[in-house]
Amino acid sequence: MWYYLCERLTQRMPALRSREILIWRVLTYMATLEHLIATGKLKKHEPDLEDAELPERVVCFTPELDTWLYDVLRIASRDRGRDLTPFEQTEQIFYDFVIGRPMAYSIHIRQLDPLRQHVWELKTTDVRILGWFPKKAHFVAVCGALKKVIPRAKHYAPLINSVVDFRATLDLDEPKSIEGATLNVVL
Amino acid sequence: MSSSKLHLDKRRRSYVRLMGEVRHALNQALAEEGIKRGVTCTSIARLLGKHKSFVSRKLNGTSNMTFETLADLAFALDRPVKVLLPERGDDSAANSNHPPPPVPETKTTATNDGDNRILATAI
């Protein structure tokens, strides 16, 4: 698109030299998800897969979430009656997501109110991971919390805000989020 | 490229994957039987003489799973439980959200083995 616009501008306004065009292109450069991963602003999650398993979706973490997963979630204890610790539940839902398992709306995943923010959560029994979908089957996980820390909808506000704020700091191509509240739009 | 792994001890990961496999298989079977015969958590609970929340807790992982519960749920879904332990690299270990390749009818049905944990299952 940028290349096309530059070509058109050069044709119509010969005074604009290639150097100016180049500067203009650099200044208006919008990053892709891949670029953000390459520059370390996001970390691509790579779950341990069996040899025959192939990733069908992508999960990226913010460095802050990565730190939270290791420093906080890893040492969170298993509640009575659970098979898995919160950390293990989270590892498993990321694995399920990446290998393309069906996700049930409101059981494994749901969009949060207000819907216009396009913030989604991945859910386990004890953990909520919040983020958004910049493109189909690509989830950027920004922050997380133990369910018991955010028992009611009103407790979600700071987390939703941190997703929105983080997304706003990224110079991702517009639109930065997939818009739509149904699963087949995002998965 | 910047990447991240949530490291789990290999032995523990084996258990985590198993529990994920079991719940995925049960939920998948419930969805299929729901379409085919109208089976729901409520109808399973009625058949087993349990409360609906018992069934949903088992299916969503809020409550731990035993051999006996797995067998009960499979019974209510009218499906046999089969156990597979494929060799690593075997195609049957491929993404289990896709239909598995046909396997010969071998062993094993789940047992009513009280508190024993499930070893490996696929419904």
Quick summary:
The complex is a heterodimer of chains A (187) and B (123). Chain A has helices spanning 2-12, 18-27, 33-38, 63-71, 86-98, 157-169, 183-186, and strands at 43-45, 58-61, 109-111, 120-123, 127-135, 138-146.
Question: Layout of helices and strands, plus pairs?
Answer:
The complex is a heterodimer of chains A (187) and B (123).
Chain A: H1 2-12, H2 18-27, H3 33-38, E1 43-45, E2 58-61, H4 63-71, H5 86-98, E3 109-111, E4 120-123, E5 127-135, E6 138-146, H6 157-169, H7 183-186
Parallel strand pairs in A: 2-6
Antiparallel strand pairs in A: 1-2, 3-4, 4-5, 5-6
Chain B: E1 3-4, H1 10-37, H2 41-48, H3 52-60, H4 67-76
Helix pairs in contact in B: 2-3
Main traits of this protein?
heterodimer; A: alpha+beta; 6-stranded mixed β-sheet; 7 helices; 6 strands; B: 123 residues; 434 Repressor (Amino-terminal Domain); 4 helices; globular; disordered C terminus
CATH superfamily of the domain at 12-87 in chain B: lambda repressor-like DNA-binding domains
Largest sheet of chain A: 6 strands, mixed
Strand content of chain A: 15-25%
Main sheet summary of chain B: none
Mean pLDDT of chain A: 86
Helix fraction of chain A by DSSP (H/I, runs of at least 4): 25-40%
Q: Which structural class should the secondary elements of chain B be placed in? A: mainly alpha
What's the N-to-C terminus distance of chain A?
26 Å
Order of helices and strands of chain A: HHHEEHHEEEEHH
Shape call of chain A: globular
* Percent range for β-strand residues of chain B: under 5%
Our count of helices of chain B gives 4
| Helix content, binned percent of chain B | 40-55%
Query: What is the radius of gyration of chain B computed over CA atoms, rounded to a whole number of angstroms?
Result: 16 Å
Lateral strand order in the biggest sheet of chain A: 1-2-6-5-4-3
Shape of chain B: globular
User: What is the number of strand segments of chain B?
Assistant: 1
CATH class designation of the domain at 12-87 in chain B: Mainly Alpha
Q: What gap, in angstroms, lies between the N and C termini of chain B?
A: 39 Å
Q: What is the count of structural domains of chain A?
A: 2
Query: Uncertain spans of chain B, ≥5 residues at pLDDT below 50?
Result: 100-123
